[in-house]
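just leaving the lab so this will be short. what follows is a protein written twice so to speak, once as letters and once as structure tokens for the fold. can you read through it and tell me how you think this chain folds. thanks a lot i owe you, the record is right below.

___
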Amino acid sequence: MIVDSLAMDKFIAVNQLQEVTNPIYLNADKTPTNDGIFSYEIFGVPGTKDRKNLFGYISLGTRLMHPFFYVALTQMDRKVKQCVEGTAFFNIVNGELVKVTGEDEQGHNGINWLYNNWGKLSWKGTGSDLRDKKISIFEKTPRDEIFVDKWLVIPAFYRDLDFSKMDMGRIQIGEENEYYERILSLSKSIQRLVQMDNFIAIMATSKMQNCLVETYTYFVQKPAGKNGYNRKYLLSKNIDYSTRGVITTSKYSTAERPENMPVKLGEFGVPLHMLCSAFKPFIIKNVREFLGGVVPENREVMYFSHKSGKDIKEQKNISVQFTLESLSDDKISAIISTYQKSWHNRWDPLYKVTKDGKHEPFYLFTEKLGKRPFTVTDLLFISASYAIMNKHMWNTRFPVTSMHSTLPNEIVILTTNDTVTVDFSPMKLGLITNYPKYQCMEWLDATMLDNSKCGVLGADFDGDTMSDIPIFSQEANDDSRKILNSKKILVDLAGKSVNNISKEATLSLYMMTKDS
């Protein structure tokens, strides 16, 4: 993966961004100004996608150093800060900034002088790996990406006006907008002073430079944390066909050997009812095709009973009743919804109505499942098994601290605490070792990962959750498979393994010495 600096002028041109020029928020009638930071013309009307996606930009009036490079450069050489702020005069000698000490010697300072003479500067290494990396970045980055004359304004949706207290005569304005207001006000001053090569102009550009650093620092920190943009706006609740699940791991008592654990490294266990939401379009398609193959040609009525544990003749509340012709997406969704909301109904059988009006349960795959009715759990498990075939889920643990916090995984279906092995090879599902055990009422309702992933994800099992997004397209799943097979996901930047079980020895001793 290559991380490169943003070519701001190109970004603005490609996306046809409009300029924000007015530091005033609202007109007299409480509507946003047309050229302000809440403008409907620039950022779109509230409630639309444009309000979430459209950026704007502010013209700074002169070239200033991008805050990322400015902070890195001032850490390398403190004389850069003195030069920008105009507190001392400098000349460039052998590629270095040299402070003027003699009264007769003429020196220079200011951000404009630094920009015009950038090609004359060179930076010497000191043997520090960090300094060498910074020097390499400065050498490879074009001057007009290090120095910018425009600043991006994020979409208004993430910093919009709050009219909730309008009846009290107050409109709340987030602190993000105060930074943009400062930049706009300072840019007006700079545009008047930039042509003047005097101390006042240097002070104005220095103040703007520090303002950009403060703005940059604020927005770098803002996405993270419990109240940040990631958690507030970009989690799975805003993404179709995705889920969030509490993190758990496999119990050591469930297997004699590591390779027999329910969920292995590179896999992610997801409860069946969550998969029905994440892969809902595929589940609906598979249910329709499956039932179409088992319902007789005379289109007998089938329905899924709602009240469990009573004679079918006494049941008055029928959840779904349909024929093959009336088997709509809504009715299949109703079956899924009932399954998700109540685990008491998960072993309810599917019934058919015979020609003489009797209710008979379906008996399918009796040679594999035994002489028992075919239930809604069987129907959804088989449909989900086809749906997840050759597919992955992208799992993200917030806050994202490294690439290991957000990775794809293969999917394992979780159902009951006890499972059985069923051979579905003729149906192209192969040998299923985690098939739900009939009438077992101990359901696994939390996501599960391999024990060795807990450390890198920061999982401490106090209710922490992960965002789980299904991957649909073949191209995306091929990329996910490449990532899973890459060595990069096994080691950190220092080359050490990121998958560890820190208390395995303690746990082993406990298991060996506990009372039988």
User: Anything to note?
Assistant: The first strand starts at residue 18 and ends at 19.
